[in-house]
Amino acid sequence: MTSGTSLLGYDFLSSFLNSSMNLVFLFIFLIALSKVFIKAGVQWWYAFIPVVNIFCLFKLARVSLLWLLLPVAPLLALTTFVVVSHSGWGTIIVGFALFVTSLVLGFIAMLRVSVAVAKKFGHSGWFGVGLSVLPWLFYSVLAFNSSEYQQEDRIEELNNVATDPSVPEAKT
Questions:
Q1: How far is CA 111 from the centre of its chain?
Q2: Residues with Cβ < 8 Å from 66, sequence gap 6 or more?
Q3: What letter does residue 42 receive in the DSSP assignment?
Q4: CA–CA gap between residue 163 and residue 144 (Å, rounded)
Q5: Where would I find the H helices in the chain?
Q6: CA atoms within 13 A on the CB side of 147
Q7: In the predicted model, is pLDDT for residue 40 greater than 80?
Q8: 116 vs 104 pLDDT, higher one
Q9: Which domain holds residue 86?
């Protein structure tokens, strides 16, 4: 008897349930993120566009977009290293080290943004850590509690992402 290869076997069911739960958590997170965007004066549907939602979180937290380079730089180094070098254990070890470095730096950047977002809504830095570690839970709390975005000028420039500020608007 083969283990875990049948369509009705445990591996298929486990994988299906795991994928389903991931989709549920993603859906909860995106709904909560859209509510947080509404609180901050940002268009709610920006939460559902993958790159735009990260850009909006950085702008919402007033964190420099240069923090995005932290996780990207080691990945570029990894790509360059793999292309230039020959295969072997050295390539695998250096590639793995650069990949882990990229993950750690990505988490640091995410932690920086999450703590800044928490503080903009009047929460502690530990709440920001929660936003990083369990985003589906803590963004839901942030979305549905009574906290307000603490910024005089709401993020109006995010609502005009597609427009160029140097081009005057057409008068109707």
A1: 10
A2: none
A3: S
A4: 31
A5: 10-40, 50-61, 69-84, 89-120, 125-133, 135-144
A6: 24
A7: yes
A8: 116
A9: 11-148
